[in-house]
Protein backbone atom coordinates (compact mmCIF):
# COMPACT_ATOMS: atom_id res chain seq x y z
CA UNK A 1 0.00 0.00 0.00
CA UNK A 2 1.49 3.37 -1.02
CA UNK A 3 -0.03 5.08 2.04
CA UNK A 4 2.46 3.34 4.33
CA UNK A 5 5.34 4.06 1.96
CA UNK A 6 4.68 7.82 2.12
CA UNK A 7 3.68 7.84 5.79
CA UNK A 8 0.08 8.79 5.08
CA UNK A 9 -2.69 8.30 7.60
CA UNK A 10 -5.43 8.08 4.97
CA UNK A 11 -5.82 7.52 1.24
CA UNK A 12 -5.52 10.84 -0.60
CA UNK A 13 -7.76 11.86 -3.50
CA UNK A 14 -10.64 9.74 -2.23
CA UNK A 15 -14.25 10.73 -2.90
CA UNK A 16 -15.40 10.24 0.69
CA UNK A 17 -14.41 13.67 2.00
CA UNK A 18 -16.53 15.62 4.49
CA UNK A 19 -18.13 18.66 2.89
CA UNK A 20 -16.31 21.06 5.19
CA UNK A 21 -12.96 19.70 3.96
CA UNK A 22 -13.64 20.07 0.24
CA UNK A 23 -11.25 22.25 -1.74
CA UNK A 24 -12.97 25.36 -3.10
CA UNK A 25 -11.54 27.00 -6.20
CA UNK A 26 -12.55 30.50 -7.23
CA UNK A 27 -15.02 29.08 -9.76
CA UNK A 28 -16.55 26.75 -7.16
CA UNK A 29 -16.98 29.62 -4.71
CA UNK A 30 -18.70 31.68 -7.38
CA UNK A 31 -20.96 28.77 -8.33
CA UNK A 32 -21.87 28.18 -4.70
CA UNK A 33 -22.69 31.85 -4.16
CA UNK A 34 -25.10 31.72 -7.09
CA UNK A 35 -26.66 28.48 -5.82
CA UNK A 36 -27.29 30.07 -2.43
CA UNK A 37 -28.91 33.06 -4.12
CA UNK A 38 -31.19 30.79 -6.13
CA UNK A 39 -32.26 28.92 -3.00
CA UNK A 40 -32.89 32.10 -1.02
CA UNK A 41 -34.87 33.82 -3.79
CA UNK A 42 -36.64 30.70 -5.11
CA UNK A 43 -35.22 31.13 -8.60
CA UNK A 44 -34.26 28.82 -11.49
CA UNK A 45 -30.62 28.16 -12.36
CA UNK A 46 -28.69 26.09 -14.88
CA UNK A 47 -25.29 24.87 -13.69
CA UNK A 48 -23.11 23.36 -16.41
CA UNK A 49 -19.55 22.10 -16.51
CA UNK A 50 -17.23 19.59 -18.10
CA UNK A 51 -17.37 15.97 -16.97
CA UNK A 52 -15.41 15.76 -13.72
CA UNK A 53 -15.50 19.52 -13.03
CA UNK A 54 -17.17 19.08 -9.63
CA UNK A 55 -20.78 19.99 -10.41
CA UNK A 56 -22.28 17.33 -8.16
CA UNK A 57 -19.77 18.29 -5.46
CA UNK A 58 -21.11 21.86 -5.60
CA UNK A 59 -24.65 20.55 -5.17
CA UNK A 60 -23.54 18.40 -2.24
CA UNK A 61 -21.92 21.39 -0.59
CA UNK A 62 -25.05 23.51 -1.11
CA UNK A 63 -27.20 20.84 0.52
CA UNK A 64 -24.87 20.68 3.52
CA UNK A 65 -24.76 24.46 3.95
CA UNK A 66 -28.48 25.23 3.70
CA UNK A 67 -30.35 25.53 6.99
CA UNK A 68 -32.56 22.43 7.25
CA UNK A 69 -35.18 24.40 9.21
CA UNK A 70 -35.62 26.78 6.28
CA UNK A 71 -34.94 24.59 3.26
CA UNK A 72 -35.84 21.10 2.09
CA UNK A 73 -33.33 19.92 -0.49
CA UNK A 74 -34.49 17.30 -2.99
CA UNK A 75 -31.75 15.72 -5.10
CA UNK A 76 -32.95 13.96 -8.26
CA UNK A 77 -30.67 12.17 -10.71
CA UNK A 78 -31.71 9.61 -13.32
CA UNK A 79 -30.49 9.42 -16.92
CA UNK A 80 -33.82 7.91 -17.98
CA UNK A 81 -36.47 9.98 -16.22
CA UNK A 82 -40.01 9.67 -17.52
CA UNK A 83 -42.78 11.96 -16.26
CA UNK A 84 -44.05 9.16 -14.03
CA UNK A 85 -40.64 8.24 -12.58
CA UNK A 86 -39.72 11.91 -12.09
CA UNK A 87 -42.82 12.82 -10.10
CA UNK A 88 -42.66 9.49 -8.26
CA UNK A 89 -39.07 10.24 -7.21
CA UNK A 90 -40.03 13.78 -6.19
CA UNK A 91 -42.87 12.59 -3.98
CA UNK A 92 -40.70 9.83 -2.51
CA UNK A 93 -38.10 12.46 -1.57
CA UNK A 94 -40.85 14.52 0.05
CA UNK A 95 -41.91 11.38 1.97
CA UNK A 96 -45.37 11.23 0.43
CA UNK A 97 -47.28 8.26 -0.94
CA UNK A 98 -47.55 8.55 -4.71
CA UNK A 99 -50.82 7.78 -6.51
CA UNK A 100 -50.69 5.62 -9.60
CA UNK A 101 -52.37 7.92 -12.11
CA UNK A 102 -49.96 10.44 -13.67
CA UNK A 103 -52.34 13.45 -13.47
CA UNK A 104 -52.76 12.81 -9.73
CA UNK A 105 -48.98 12.40 -9.36
CA UNK A 106 -48.36 15.79 -10.93
CA UNK A 107 -51.14 17.49 -8.98
CA UNK A 108 -49.90 16.13 -5.65
CA UNK A 109 -46.32 17.14 -6.42
CA UNK A 110 -47.35 20.73 -7.16
CA UNK A 111 -49.50 20.88 -4.03
CA UNK A 112 -46.75 19.39 -1.85
CA UNK A 113 -44.17 21.93 -3.02
CA UNK A 114 -46.56 24.81 -2.36
CA UNK A 115 -47.54 23.35 1.02
CA UNK A 116 -43.93 23.24 2.21
CA UNK A 117 -43.63 26.97 1.62
CA UNK A 118 -47.07 28.19 2.63
CA UNK A 119 -47.60 26.29 5.87
CA UNK A 120 -44.17 25.02 6.93
CA UNK A 121 -42.25 28.11 5.73
CA UNK A 122 -39.57 25.87 4.24
CA UNK A 123 -38.32 26.39 0.70
CA UNK A 124 -38.06 23.21 -1.39
CA UNK A 125 -34.84 23.26 -3.41
CA UNK A 126 -34.97 20.83 -6.34
CA UNK A 127 -31.55 19.78 -7.61
CA UNK A 128 -31.87 17.88 -10.90
CA UNK A 129 -28.49 16.36 -11.73
CA UNK A 130 -27.47 14.82 -15.07
CA UNK A 131 -30.10 17.07 -16.64
CA UNK A 132 -28.47 16.82 -20.09
CA UNK A 133 -30.27 13.48 -20.38
CA UNK A 134 -33.75 14.93 -19.86
CA UNK A 135 -35.98 14.25 -22.84
CA UNK A 136 -37.96 17.04 -24.56
CA UNK A 137 -41.04 15.65 -22.82
CA UNK A 138 -39.34 15.94 -19.44
CA UNK A 139 -38.14 19.47 -20.13
CA UNK A 140 -41.73 20.40 -20.89
CA UNK A 141 -42.92 18.74 -17.68
CA UNK A 142 -40.42 20.79 -15.68
CA UNK A 143 -41.58 23.95 -17.42
CA UNK A 144 -45.13 23.06 -16.44
CA UNK A 145 -44.06 22.50 -12.85
CA UNK A 146 -42.81 26.10 -12.78
CA UNK A 147 -46.24 27.49 -13.67
CA UNK A 148 -47.77 28.79 -10.46
CA UNK A 149 -50.67 31.21 -10.22
CA UNK A 150 -49.95 33.05 -13.44
CA UNK A 151 -46.25 33.39 -12.57
CA UNK A 152 -47.03 35.43 -9.44
CA UNK A 153 -45.75 32.89 -6.94
CA UNK A 154 -42.74 30.54 -6.87
CA UNK A 155 -42.80 28.16 -3.91
CA UNK A 156 -39.54 26.38 -4.70
CA UNK A 157 -36.06 26.81 -6.20
CA UNK A 158 -34.84 24.71 -9.10
CA UNK A 159 -31.32 23.89 -10.28
CA UNK A 160 -30.74 21.98 -13.50
CA UNK A 161 -27.21 20.59 -13.51
CA UNK A 162 -25.40 18.96 -16.42
CA UNK A 163 -22.72 19.09 -19.08
CA UNK A 164 -22.49 21.52 -22.00
CA UNK A 165 -25.05 19.34 -23.74
CA UNK A 166 -27.68 20.70 -21.33
CA UNK A 167 -27.02 24.28 -22.48
CA UNK A 168 -27.26 23.09 -26.09
CA UNK A 169 -30.58 21.39 -25.38
CA UNK A 170 -31.99 24.52 -23.77
CA UNK A 171 -30.89 26.61 -26.76
CA UNK A 172 -33.21 24.64 -29.05
CA UNK A 173 -36.45 26.26 -30.14
CA UNK A 174 -38.42 23.39 -28.59
CA UNK A 175 -37.09 24.34 -25.14
CA UNK A 176 -37.56 28.10 -25.54
CA UNK A 177 -40.42 28.32 -23.03
CA UNK A 178 -38.29 26.72 -20.31
CA UNK A 179 -35.17 28.69 -21.26
CA UNK A 180 -37.07 31.94 -20.74
CA UNK A 181 -37.70 30.96 -17.12
CA UNK A 182 -34.02 30.52 -16.27
CA UNK A 183 -32.80 33.31 -14.00
CA UNK A 184 -29.12 32.38 -13.68
CA UNK A 185 -26.61 30.36 -15.68
CA UNK A 186 -23.12 29.38 -14.63
CA UNK A 187 -20.49 27.22 -16.31
CA UNK A 188 -18.01 25.50 -14.00
CA UNK A 189 -14.57 25.26 -15.60
CA UNK A 190 -11.35 23.59 -14.54
CA UNK A 191 -8.75 24.80 -12.04
CA UNK A 192 -5.98 27.21 -12.90
CA UNK A 193 -2.43 25.71 -12.73
CA UNK A 194 -2.00 27.28 -9.30
CA UNK A 195 -5.30 25.85 -8.10
CA UNK A 196 -4.39 22.38 -9.36
CA UNK A 197 -1.19 22.48 -7.29
CA UNK A 198 -3.07 23.79 -4.25
CA UNK A 199 -5.76 21.12 -4.73
CA UNK A 200 -3.19 18.30 -4.74
CA UNK A 201 -1.42 19.70 -1.67
CA UNK A 202 -4.78 20.07 0.06
CA UNK A 203 -5.61 16.39 -0.47
CA UNK A 204 -2.18 15.29 0.67
CA UNK A 205 -2.55 17.35 3.84
CA UNK A 206 -5.92 15.72 4.52
CA UNK A 207 -4.15 12.38 4.13
CA UNK A 208 -1.60 13.33 6.76
CA UNK A 209 1.42 14.94 5.11
CA UNK A 210 2.80 18.38 4.30
CA UNK A 211 5.59 16.90 2.18
CA UNK A 212 5.98 18.07 -1.40
CA UNK A 213 5.49 14.62 -2.93
CA UNK A 214 4.97 16.08 -6.42
CA UNK A 215 7.58 18.22 -8.15
CA UNK A 216 6.55 21.44 -9.85
CA UNK A 217 7.05 19.74 -13.21
CA UNK A 218 4.82 16.83 -12.18
CA UNK A 219 2.09 19.22 -11.02
CA UNK A 220 2.24 21.02 -14.35
CA UNK A 221 2.00 17.73 -16.28
CA UNK A 222 -1.02 16.65 -14.22
CA UNK A 223 -2.75 19.99 -14.73
CA UNK A 224 -2.31 19.92 -18.49
CA UNK A 225 -3.21 16.24 -18.83
CA UNK A 226 -6.42 16.73 -16.84
CA UNK A 227 -7.37 20.21 -18.08
CA UNK A 228 -7.59 21.24 -14.43
CA UNK A 229 -10.62 19.02 -13.78
CA UNK A 230 -10.84 17.60 -10.23
CA UNK A 231 -11.97 14.05 -10.99
CA UNK A 232 -9.23 13.25 -13.54
CA UNK A 233 -6.70 14.95 -11.24
CA UNK A 234 -7.74 12.62 -8.42
CA UNK A 235 -7.32 9.57 -10.63
CA UNK A 236 -3.97 10.56 -12.13
CA UNK A 237 -2.42 11.75 -8.87
CA UNK A 238 -3.49 8.51 -7.20
CA UNK A 239 -1.85 6.47 -9.98
CA UNK A 240 1.30 8.58 -9.71
CA UNK A 241 1.67 7.79 -6.02
CA UNK A 242 1.07 4.09 -6.64
CA UNK A 243 3.71 4.03 -9.38
CA UNK A 244 6.22 6.00 -7.28
CA UNK A 245 5.80 3.67 -4.31
CA UNK A 246 6.18 0.60 -6.55
CA UNK A 247 9.49 1.93 -7.90
Question: Please, could you describe this protein's structure?
Answer:
Helices cover 49% and strands 13% of the residues. The protein is built from eleven helices and five strands, in the order ααβαβααβαβααβααα. The chain has helices at 2-5, 26-41, 55-65, 83-93, 102-118, 136-145, 164-170, 176-179, 193-206, 216-226, 230-246, and strands spanning 44-49, 71-77, 123-129, 157-162, 184-188. α4 runs parallel beside α5 and α10 (216-226) crosses α11. The longest helix is centred in the middle third of the chain and has 17 residues, at 102-118.
Brief characterization of the structure:
The chain is of the alpha/beta class and 247 residues long.
Unreliable residue stretches: none
Query: If you compute it from the alpha carbons, what radius of gyration comes out, rounded to the nearest whole angstrom?
Result: 21 Å
Principal-axes shape call:
elongated
Helix content class: 40-55%
| Rounded average pLDDT | 93
Report the count of strand segments.
Answer: 5
Distance between the termini: 12 Å
Number of helices: 11
How does the helix and strand content classify structurally? alpha/beta
Q: Give the biggest beta sheet.
A: 5 strands, parallel
**Can you write the helix and strand succession as a string?**
HHEHEHHEHEHHEHHH
Residue share in β-strands: 5-15%
